[in-house]
Amino acid sequence: MLDVGATSANNIRFLTGQGHKYYSEDLLRASLDPALRTADSEGNTVVDGKKFLDENLVYPNGHFDIVLCWNLADYMEESLVKPTVDRFWSQMKAGGLLLAFFHTRDAGPDSACYRYHVTGTDMLEMQEVRFAPPGRPSSEKQSPRLQRVFNNRHIENLFRDFASIKFFLARDNIREVLVVR
Q: Which of 22, 33, 92, 99 is most buried (most C-beta within 10 Å)?
């Protein structure tokens, strides 16, 4: 099982207690690393997606049965989202499951980013994620900004290589998406 959200001791304890081998990577925080910034041909600052993937999600193909993606796609730099999902596809076993959360259009640009804690078989606790932006003092912690709101068609396109996708409307302007590899 791969958890790509902010590290949660609750998730580690609960999921390893269920007998799962557990891997964790905070991909949102990793994607904000200033060392990933480079200039494009026009001099604009962009994220080096190749370097990001070379340094993160370095696992064998077909390694994972489950990926907990949480709300990563809504907060991650746009240029990294599709390559990251493609990497998930490669690293998941056939029939593997991916859980992702997406904000609905009603969420608003100031929607807080959350860390999700699995507290039982049918319960999650949410805790706002706050950290200092790259190059800023740790006293200036803030929640990452919502980058975009995906509509259903965008989500279907994002996971088009997967075998199936199911949408569930959740509370707090969130859609749960369960994807099968």
A: 92
* Domain total in the chain: 1
Q: How many residues does the chain have?
A: 181
pLDDT score for 37: 93
pTM of the model: 0.91
CATH number of the domain residue 27 falls in:
3.40.50
**Position 156, amino acid:** E
For CA atoms 81, 110, 176, 122, give the dihedral sign. positive
What does the mean pLDDT of the chain come to?
92
Domain that holds residue 9: 2-180
